[in-house]
Here is the input.
Amino acid sequence: MASQIAVIGAGPCGLAQLDAFEEARRGGAEIPEITCFEQQSDWGGLWNYTWRTGLDEHGDPVHGSMYRYLWSNGPKECLEFADYTFDEHFGQPIPSFPPREVLYDYITGRAKKNDVRRFIQFNTAVRWISYDEQAGKFAVTVQTRDDGRTRTEQFDKVIVATGHFSTPNMPSFEGFDRFPGRIMHSHDFRDAQEFTGQRLLVIGSSYSAEDIALQTKKYGAQSVTVSYRTQPMGFPWPAGIDEVPLLSKVDGSTAHFADGTTRDVDAIVLCTGYQHSFRFISDELRLRTANVLYPGNLYKGVFWLGQPDLMYLGMQDQYYTFSMFDTQAWYARDYVLGRISLPSPEEMAADIARWRDRLAECAGPFDEIDFQAAYVADLHKEVDYPSYDLDLTRAHFKEWEHDKTASITGYRDKSFSSPCTGTIAPVHHTPWWTELDDSMATFLGNQT
Here is the structure.
């Protein structure tokens, strides 16, 4: 009897895993029986945009944190699928910083090409995963959300591909309970036009804070104040955006900051990160980690140290995204197929420790880019994922960091070359800062 494999989630990581198995099958390999459980009604994970916030139509927490006017905040060339290039998908070169709809079309385009939808059970939420030592199998309890029925199935291996940007980290500040405006986490941010004419306070100093501050100002916010905990992002912000130290309290509509200054604000967006939350996994199997480039207890960043037949994809903090998920998925697949064997638990623990020691020596973004590139290369050398110019992507990321420092509103107007095809991206026909239409038709049309 073929082994049974469960893949949890049909976002970029889960689809990468299904694509990896399908690629092996087409290459003549005998693959196991694969079942992918997806809580949402369609694939794409976070890229499956919904207007909903809070709870979804079935009473579960909304998975998505995607907002309407999101554009890629890194060069698309650094996330390109080596086995399915942008040129192949779109039939033409496209600019380096696509909006949400374009990237969703690209992600799902490969999944359609490989016909992996047949592996996926949609509207099916995983409620509990445990391991039966006697049977040597995982018990996976799922609920079909349309009728509320639950059932438990057994699997030989489980691959968790749910992502970790869905459960908000929600701090509290003095006076929040009496603030007369809206307080929300970036997880619930959907449309920048909600804040047109408003004085917005954004709390945080990472990618979400950076992008939501820009988006809201671009679409008409009166002013945006960004409050940081440790240090400012320090970009050359456009008029109407500035940074101040951490919020200390709110008194009515007046925000008080650690440096003694105050601002009157109409709304507050908490860009304070996410928790790795796996409440559907039993304690001894559950990953608990901060958002770091190399979580503990995951050999090769994938295999659960206590039970390596449980695998996690995409659990790292990320410079690399889709291309890293692919390499992880190919590695996990080859373990499942018996092409890769894992060392002893002691050797795995020692390898994790070496990587985490190396991470501790990183002193800024350039070191972190090199660290994650080295991690991807370490996986890549063991699998048959198509080769591409990884060193070029490292150079691209470093150039991108420079570009952002030079112009936080103009860095998306830059052009990069593909590490897979060498294609140089055209410059977008309209500067990002003045382009209010993020539709795929407008983005792909009238390229210069």
